[in-house]
Input
Amino acid sequence: MVTLNQPTVIQPPAPAGPCLDAAELGVRGVNERLRQLPPGSAVTVTSPGGRHNLAVALAAELAVTIDGPAGYYAGGLGQLATVTVHGPAGWGAGENLMSGEVRVRGDASQSAAASAHGGLVVVEGNASLRAGISLKGATLAVAGDAGAFCGFLAQAGTILIGGNAGEALGDSLYEAVIYVAGTIRSLGADAQVEELSAADVATVRDLVRRTGFRHIDPENVTRVGSARQLYHFSGQHHAAY
Amino acid sequence: MPPTDPAPLPLNHTFPPEVVADIQQRAGLGRYQIRGMGARRALPTFDDLLLLTASASRYPLEGYREHCATRTVLGARHAAEPVVLDIPVTIAGMSFGALSAAAKEALGRAASEVGTSTTTGDGGMTAEERAASKTLVYQCLPSRYGFNPDDLRAADAVEIVLGQGAKPGGGGMLLGQKVGPRVAGMRTLPEGVDQRSASRHPDWTGPDDLRIKIEELREATGWRIPIYVKMGATRVGHDVRLAVAAGADVVVVDGMQGGTAATQDMFIEHTGIPTLAAVRLAAEALADLGPAGEVQLIVSGGIRTGADVAKALALGADAVSLGVAPLIALGCNAPSYPGTDGAPVDVTGEYAAMGTAPGYCAGCHTGRCPVGIATQDDRLAGRLDAGLGAEQVANYLRSLVMETAMLARACGKSDVHRLEPEDLVALTVEAAAMARVPLAGTSWIPGWPS
Amino acid sequence: MCGIVGLQLRDQAQQGRLGELIAGMLGQVAERGPDSAGIALYGDTSLAPPGQAVVSALAPEPPSTVLAGVLRPLLPGADVTVTEVADVRVIAAPVPQPRLTAAVRAALPNAPLLGTGPDLAVLKGVGDPAELAAAFGLAGRTGYQAAGHTRMATESAVTVAHSHPFSAAPGMCLVHNGSFANHDTVRRRLRAEGMSFDTDNDSEVAAAFVASRLAAGDDLGQALRSVCRAFDGFYTLLVTTPAELAVVRDAIACKPALIAEGDGWVAMASEYRALSGLPGIAAARVFEPAPGEVYLWSR
Output
């Protein structure tokens, strides 16, 4: 089990299709041009400089490479497209993703994959607080550590953490399932450790294959799910918070 | 001297019958009371304001002959396609889930008929509502149930919800009996669970980060449509300024009288400020901030009549939004529903079984709505005829606009948006202070330096 | 409603670039706070000569020559220097700090004092942060440490007094992103203990609280842990003294914060793009502070 506390060494991307210079075009200019590309196009966004809202709401099979740090909501509200950030990403990487993939080849800031419905969000570094918050069916895979409140209010989908999970993991979990390869600092309200089944192992093995996270042993992860004690109102439940 | 009648029982104002009943219910229930609708108790409202119409020094327009414009444009600040309405009255966000699909459709059809918008709710956009509603505002709530980019692109405006008047600081709520298969599917929840939404957005907190979120939604919609920001009325002046600084094109302020389909009674009655106070605070914050008319104000929370609408506009709102009232027009709290042969079917007994009566019901949270509006039970929902309901709501909205225009004309205004605070006086000291208009018969505005 | 940035240059060779680097960082958080800005500069010897008392005052009038003329008789025998930086007057003299502070208060009874203490100059202004940075000549300034703040205003009359940083003790500065929920009560308690306040701003209460804990004998780490216990709200705080730079977030941590430890420097910012211009950022250790933990670097 590997804990990635060092920044991932980023290989420069192979030039992919035409380049859109974010410094020259601005975010609005970049996104307008991305929206006009025909399905199947590949393009690189250069000089992203940590700008927010790059490649949001894409709706075609595009391969977008962001060559540097991205700000908030990189690849958010997307479908069908693959967005790769060669650097760290800010809050809400892949937020509300519907399908396709958002891959961060560095660390992701808070709320990675927030409310994502489908597709795959991959973080090759660490994810900070609230990774997978309000998840609605997508898959979030983090190679390194996840900060506190990971999976908060996660309703459906899968979270895989290759490193350690912070405080209050899976607080108020609904039907999403969390797999942790490392240690868990503490569980959140209504979250419980569950037995790992053969189906779980197969799920994790498949995820390892898709993400390339070979440091994760599918048979050696902890499964966390909802105890379902907070699904219905009761005066006694207030003590749980 | 023997009393001829039994002596009247003395009323204990601290523990009146309602409070006694409430305490007894909690002793049995073990938790807080949950209910629908808005604040029940008597509050300073628009009823406490009066319009100063024509006199020797102010001349009216002819009520039926001379034009009084009601066209309302919202969100022209950044959007390529602002929202253009025929009237200054809109229908507020109410979720599919809280309401039946037919109810949402009826509201949409009525709004299209009279030239205004409806708003989705905490459950996402239904195909019925998008098809029925000519102008549809799409809410982005803390829960993000059903929120998706396709519906976003199909919307005519986006409303980012920080909170609502009934429960500012509390999240949405839908009890298990209303989380049926379709609702559960749209909200990605297990069927039958007691849904309690988050009270904060998952990916931003605070106006500095809201600014970035607003930009994301603009990017996602190609800068085409307006972005509204809706808040429950608490620290109104401060909050309106922050919303504008964050980039809102339209600010929606929902006073404490605002309704809900389900929340804790304690929230409804004890949080937020009356709409009467909120309007003036919001209007003055906007006026203070920048060029007139750059950011529009919509107010909601207990709007019932054309008089309410006229007074809200006079105090500075650009439009009002209604939730409870159109539902009542639709049949909420009616003693019967229209039977298939046209004869009304009496349901007073069903209200009684819920412990209430027509005119007093706030049982939206139970899903047992006898007229098929606030329910997911197919048998009950089938009682609502969307076409008939749409006609009723359209009639009501038309009557509101006619009243508003009539009052505006009586004040000499050729456009309802020209109503101004100086057209108003107050009946009570509280209303005068809250609305910042003089107490009738005086030049005194309590609470403000003269 | 704000952006915050901080930089401590531990390697003396880099200290010539302090102003240039902090100006770049400030520019990258201007969008979060477009209406006013403030900077705390430590170790700019042209403003704060080593070993001297320093006071920064917001006083567009009178001109500095006149002000110097008023101050000298109040501090006989001392060589008083007054430097004009936009509307701020940075006054230095080789006298004990309380004497200089008292003299400046007497000479400028209506001017808000922005900061006092050794090594520290505080510059604040209203307007676009990039324009303010230019007016302050920030890019050319030097020193060992800086903290900066950009503000999103909520009142039409944007006043400098409400801007951060707040300096409630000599040499100490606090910048804040977020919002407290019970600061009125904390302010009342501090007032009862004898502290006074220039504004109704919630951040000023946090600064005063830290100052009161330091005066009671806490070290900065203990004082910031006390903040976490005493205050409700969502906040990222950056606090500096001539010897330290510290960062803390509340236990729920919904306001952004990033820390970068580079070769010979440590930096903090609300957004990553504010760090992206720092030398060697690609190799720096970048991380987000955990909720409720104090991170502190001493020189």
